[in-house]
């Protein structure tokens, strides 16, 4: 194996961004990918069957995303929208952290322009939902100029905003009133798998109806009541309600793979789109997820403008890597214990209630927290994985965050990135490093880990295609032959 041909100069990580949830970008002095011994692996070299991407690319990348969005939008039925009607374009905060955020923002701009052009409707608004960081989408709206683009009709909506009762086949559930205060709604989402540890790639395309667009009483079925997998039916119940169906026009998705934006997918039939999203999530992201499961030991680095569990490497978030010792797609596998949500499955002494609950990914020997945001309860991570936080300012930020007052009880601080990495090398005895910094098109890792991943990739690709993917799709009722015909 000629390793040097597949090892490249590190890809530039996503830049730090100003936010009330993170430290000032000027305090991020060093990115770990810039340090000695780090290289980048291109995902399409690891897995040659990954489809071509529109972004990352050259100077025309965003224009190509725009063109793909417009072409897909021209194919859906918009005849229900009349010039005198009002339309709410519904977005979710996670979309703005994909590949720098611009592609998702461009999709939202394209939706407004095409709907206005095709229908004559002028009253088009943007409603961007969030999770626990109630002001987050307000920052994104301003950052990407969506407030201006939507003529002052772009707002962030939070799960504590005024609710609206929605009668469903399982009883009354609650949406956010501002989400549904228009004649029509357009569901603008993406195929990024993100919280596959939650939805297990079941109805992923439907999930925002029980999360981003729902009041806290309903979205908490995921968080405090039913937990992973079991809560998925609440989103489907809301979407299938007479109320939501009377307003639903169509869905417009940014088609994402782990290596970049591969297109756009719009449809009046959300479940047909959901099947295609399931195929993308299992086939493309499944290879990266399975490859991560082959890592025997490493230092995980957080170096991305997002809360702790949502930082990216190769299109996969850290929360999923902490559960990579299990098959997150296999519906028969035990519940993985890698987010604070699953603390309900643990006794006060920290021991799991069920004997077959798998441990946190034992391959992660230490976490170097170089740059990541607050706003998400992350004590579970530092409590279970030895953690070094870079900089006093970052440590103080977590100490004063109401959701993370215990995070630093289990972590130590280092004066600099260099000191933190040297400490990690000395304590763990490994020089294998995976960096969650959002590098687009590849992953930034140490040379030693790159060799392991290069060796494992061919076998992983074959196993996913021939063994795992058929099983995953069968478990979800997705007919692979139909999807192949529609390619």
Report on this structure.
This protein starts with a helix and ends with a helix. It is 34% helix and 21% strand. Helix 3 (61-73) runs parallel beside helix 4 (102-119) and helix 11 packs antiparallel against helix 16 (447-475). The chain is of the alpha/beta class. The strands form four sheets. A seven-stranded mixed β-sheet has the order 1-17-16-10-13-14-15. A six-stranded mixed β-sheet has the order 4-3-2-7-8-9, sandwiched between helices.
The Cα radius of gyration reads 22 Å
- Portion in strands: 15-25%
Major sheet description: 7 strands, mixed
Structure class: alpha/beta
Strand order of the largest sheet: 1-17-16-10-13-14-15
When the domains are counted, the total is 2
Q: What's the helix count?
A: 17
Helix content: 25-40%
User: Low-confidence parts, pLDDT < 50 over ≥5 residues?
Assistant: 337-341
Spatial separation of the terminal alpha carbons: 33 Å
How many strand elements? 17
Shape: globular
The average pLDDT score comes to 93
Primary descriptors:
Rossmann fold, 6-stranded mixed sheet, 21% strand, globular, 7-stranded mixed sheet, 487 residues, 17 strands, alpha/beta
């Amino acid at each position: 194996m000629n390793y040097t041909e597949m090892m490249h100069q590190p890809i530039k990580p996503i830049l730090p961004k100003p936010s009330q949830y993170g430290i000032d970008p000027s305090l991020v002095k060093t990115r770990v990918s810039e340090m000695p011994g780090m290289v980048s692996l291109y995902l399409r070299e690891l897995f040659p069957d990954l489809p071509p991407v529109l972004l990352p690319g050259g100077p025309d990348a965003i224009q190509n995303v725009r063109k793909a969005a417009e072409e897909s939008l021209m194919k859906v039925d918009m005849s229900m929208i009349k010039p005198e009607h009002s339309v709410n374009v519904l977005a979710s905060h996670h979309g703005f952290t994909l590949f720098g955020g611009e592609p998702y923002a461009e999709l939202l701009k394209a939706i407004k322009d095409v709907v206005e052009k095709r229908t004559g409707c002028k009253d088009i608004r943007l409603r961007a939902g969030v999770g626990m960081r109630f002001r987050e989408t307000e920052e994104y709206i301003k950052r990407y100029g969506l407030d201006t683009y939507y003529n002052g009709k772009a707002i962030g909506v939070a799960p504590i905003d005024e609710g609206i009762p929605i009668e469903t086949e399982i009883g009354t559930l609650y949406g956010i009133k501002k989400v549904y205060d228009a004649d029509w709604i357009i569901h603008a989402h993406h195929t990024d798998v993100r919280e596959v540890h939650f939805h297990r790639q079941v109805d992923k395309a439907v999930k925002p109806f029980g999360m981003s667009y729902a009041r806290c009483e309903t979205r908490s079925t995921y968080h405090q009541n039913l937990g992973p997998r079991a809560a998925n039916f609440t989103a489907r119940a809301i979407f299938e309600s007479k109320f939501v169906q009377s307003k639903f026009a169509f869905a417009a998705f940014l088609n994402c793979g782990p290596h970049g934006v591969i297109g756009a997918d719009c449809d009046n039939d959300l479940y047909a789109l959901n099947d295609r999203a399931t195929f993308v999530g299992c086939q493309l992201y499944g290879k990266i997820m399975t490859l991560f499961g082959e890592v025997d030991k490493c230092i995980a680095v957080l170096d991305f403008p997002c809360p702790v569990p949502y930082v990216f490497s190769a299109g996969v978030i850290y929360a999923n890597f902490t559960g990579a010792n299990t098959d997150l797609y296999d519906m028969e596998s035990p519940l993985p214990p890698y987010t604070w949500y699953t603390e309900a499955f643990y006794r006060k002494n920290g021991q799991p209630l069920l004997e077959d609950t798998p441990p946190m990914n034992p391959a992660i020997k230490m976490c170097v927290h170089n740059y990541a945001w607050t706003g998400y309860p992350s004590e579970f991570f530092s409590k279970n994985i030895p953690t070094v936080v870079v900089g006093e300012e970052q440590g103080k930020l977590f100490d004063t965050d109401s959701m993370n007052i215990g995070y630093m009880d289990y972590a130590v601080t280092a004066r600099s990135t260099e000191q933190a990495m040297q400490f990690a090398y000395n304590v763990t005895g490994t020089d294998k490093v995976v960096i969650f910094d959002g590098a687009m098109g590849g992953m930034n890792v140490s040379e030693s880990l790159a060799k392991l991943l290069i060796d494992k990739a061919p076998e992983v690709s074959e196993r996913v295609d021939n063994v795992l993917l058929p099983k995953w799709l069968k478990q979800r009722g997705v007919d692979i032959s139909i999807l192949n015909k529609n390619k």
